[in-house]
């Protein structure tokens, strides 16, 4: 397996289950453990792998945290495009994710706040007041159905027969 | 009152798998390596296509041969994947699972007393189906020590003037073994030499790891004497939809269709529509599942070998067939003990014919965590009985 393919295979396994150890992965790919470890280290060093996190079902947690998606229309600046305004925005800790979009608006923010009031404050005081921001549109998240590829509702399991030909 | 059950049926032994299934029922916390079906659900776009079709009113019979669109897609698929050409209008029949196709094939070709060579260990249905069709199954063992290489002398010795057909299944349930091109070529040679029809169950063709599956009918001169059987159950995780097919020369398909039209009429339309979606757009999910099986395959093979239970690396399907010959148990006894003491369900090799003695079948169509836990339990079983390979070496 060449180096790039090895990385792809490892990432495929880790993005599904970050707790798989190098030893586990080595058996799954029929490779030596040190080869897998070296590749993981390399990806950690070059920031291909940024972090290992748990995917949490916030519904289950009965967390009071409020989440919203904010569409932002803003004007790009000469020489830096949208990067300068993006940098100003992503430094706010409330902003969990930020993307440049095609279509009817420019930036998409995923924002987390303790209460709806907090988010209202962030939009009104911090975001909308930025020079190049023309317009914001805030959508509050009401219910989560699927997170990171995982369906959150408990689904009834259709039992398989225990022994079949 | 008379005994109403026919002698022919009474004489057929019940499936060894069935016996084990009865044992498992009611037990809790059982990890099953005994399941011969994917642990994945049918990919959603496939189920959704069928649901949509039902909503639209697709609830009727189809042509006896099956929906033409499905037959056309299968013809295209066989051409693209295996370089075999079949006319979708005359040479492909959609059946209720590959199982029905097998039944039809035997019933269509066998005269009373005709013999069929079957390589063992083999899937539980083949011998009974031959018997029910009035034929005589003649089994040849493929077990060589702990591997499954073909012994052509033994096959040749089993062929008599009454031999009508050679039955093959590769990649194999239960061993996972596939045939090399050389082996296929030799089988083809035998078929030609003795003028045999070859029934080739290639249901696991897509689940072939490391190399490309070669369809038997693609071998020179074999197209006209092969009944190719396959289906959607395994590769597309569609066992419950019951859609299989047979591809064969026109006269054989015509004969099979005659039985099918009287006995079954047609395969269920919803399943056929799901199958069209699977064959058109199911490639990506199929590859995903195959990759997952491949990883589990490596884990389970390495696990058994580490325990000192020699396990050949299967070329396909989702089974391993490790040898337990070094243990002081027969297959059946071992599986029973393992089930009652460690709550791990496996299937004794003898369920697949007497050649399977000294082996067990383990399916890796189950989650990685369960596979690992099952391996751990088997290891602790060996340890408790003083049968770990290290202890053995020391003793």
Plain-language structure description:
- Chain A: InterPro entries: Dimeric_a/b-barrel (IPR011008), HTH-Siroheme_Decarb (IPR050684), Tscrpt_reg_AsnC-like (IPR019888), Tscrpt_reg_AsnC/Lrp_C (IPR019887), WH-like_DNA-bd_sf (IPR036388), WH_DNA-bd_sf (IPR036390).
- Chain A: This is Lrp/AsnC family transcriptional regulator.
- Chain A: Pfam families: AsnC_trans_reg.
- The complex is a heterodimer of chains A (165) and B (395).
- Chain A is of the alpha+beta class and 165 residues long.
- Chain A has two domains: 43 residues, Orthogonal Bundle (Arc Repressor Mutant, subunit A); 84 residues, Lrp/AsnC effector binding domain/regulation of amino acid metabolism (RAM) domain (Alpha-Beta Plaits, 2-Layer Sandwich).
- Chain A contains six helices and six strands; from the N terminus they run H-H-H-H-E-H-E-E-H-E-E-E.
- In chain A, strands 2-3-1-4 form a four-stranded antiparallel beta sheet. In chain A, strands 5-6 form a two-stranded antiparallel ribbon.
- Chain A is extended.
- The mean pLDDT of chain A is 93.
- Chain B has 395 residues and is of the alpha/beta class.
- Chain B has two domains: 135 residues, Aspartate Aminotransferase, domain 1; 239 residues, Type I PLP-dependent aspartate aminotransferase-like (Major domain) (Aspartate Aminotransferase, domain 2, 3-Layer(aba) Sandwich), CATH 3.40.640.10.
- In chain B, helix 6 links the parallel strand 3 and strand 4.
- In chain B, helix 5 packs across helix 9.
- Chains A and B meet through helix 2 of A and helix 2 and helix 11 of B.
């Amino acid at each position: 397996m060449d180096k790039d393919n090895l990385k792809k295979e490892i990432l495929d396994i880790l993005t599904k289950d970050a707790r798989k150890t190098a030893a586990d992965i080595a058996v799954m790919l029929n490779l030596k453990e040190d080869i897998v470890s070296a590749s993981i280290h390399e990806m950690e060093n070059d920031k291909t792998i940024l972090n290992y996190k748990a995917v949490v079902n916030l519904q289950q947690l009965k967390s009071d945290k409020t989440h919203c998606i904010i569409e932002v229309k803003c004007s790009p600046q000469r020489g830096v495009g949208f990067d300068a305004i993006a940098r100003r925005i992503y430094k706010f800790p409330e902003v969990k994710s930020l993307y440049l979009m095609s279509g009817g608006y420019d930036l998409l923010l995923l924002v987390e706040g303790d209460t709806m009031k907090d988010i209202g404050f962030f939009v009104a005081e911090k975001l909308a007041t930025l020079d190049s921001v023309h317009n914001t549109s805030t959508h509050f998240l009401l219910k989560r159905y699927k997170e990171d590829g995982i369906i959150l509702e408990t689904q009834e399991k259709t039992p398989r027969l225990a022994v079949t030909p | 009152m008379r005994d109403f059950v026919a002698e022919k049926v009474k004489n057929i032994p019940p499936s060894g798998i069935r016996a084990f299934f009865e044992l498992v029922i009611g037990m809790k916390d059982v990890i099953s390596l005994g399941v011969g079906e994917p642990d994945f659900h049918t990919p959603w776009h496939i189920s959704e296509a069928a649901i949509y079709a039902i909503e639209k009113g697709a609830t009727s019979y189809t042509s006896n041969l099956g929906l033409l669109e499905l037959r056309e897609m299968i013809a295209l698929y066989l051409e693209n994947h295996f370089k075999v050409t079949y006319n979708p209008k005359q040479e492909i029949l959609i059946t209720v699972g590959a199982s029905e196709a097998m039944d039809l094939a035997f019933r269509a070709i066998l005269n009373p007393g005709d013999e069929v060579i079957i390589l063992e260990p083999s899937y539980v249905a083949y011998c009974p189906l031959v018997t029910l069709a009035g034929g005589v199954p003649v089994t040849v063992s493929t077990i060589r020590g702990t591997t499954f290489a073909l012994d052509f002398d033994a096959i040749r010795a089993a062929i008599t003037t009454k031999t009508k057909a050679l039955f093959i299944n590769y990649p194999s349930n239960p061993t996972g073994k596939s045939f090399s091109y050389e082996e296929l070529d030799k089988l083809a040679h035998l078929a030609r030499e003795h003028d045999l029809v070859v029934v080739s169950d290639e249901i696991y063709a897509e689940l072939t790891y490391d190399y490309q599956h070669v369809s038997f009918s693609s071998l020179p001169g074999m197209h006209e004497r092969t009944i190719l059987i396959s289906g959607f159950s395994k590769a597309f995780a569609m066992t419950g939809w019951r859609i299989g097919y047979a591809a064969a020369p026109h006269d054989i398909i015509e004969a099979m269709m005659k039985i099918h039209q009287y006995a079954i009429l047609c395969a269920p339309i919803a399943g056929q529509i799901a199958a069209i979606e699977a064959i058109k757009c199911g490639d990506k999910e199929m590859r995903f599942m195959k990759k997952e099986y491949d990883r589990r395959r490596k884990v389970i093979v390495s696990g058994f070998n580490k325990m000192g239970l020699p396990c050949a690396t299967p070329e396909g399907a989702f089974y391993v067939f490790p040898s337990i010959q070094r243990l002081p148990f027969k297959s059946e006894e071992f599986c029973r003990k393992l089930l009652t003491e460690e709550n791990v369900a496996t299937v004794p090799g003898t369920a697949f014919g007497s050649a399977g003695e000294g082996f067990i079948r383990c399916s890796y169509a189950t989650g990685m965590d369960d596979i690992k836990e099952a391996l751990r339990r088997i290891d602790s079983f060996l340890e408790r009985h003083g049968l770990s390979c290290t202890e053995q070496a020391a003793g």
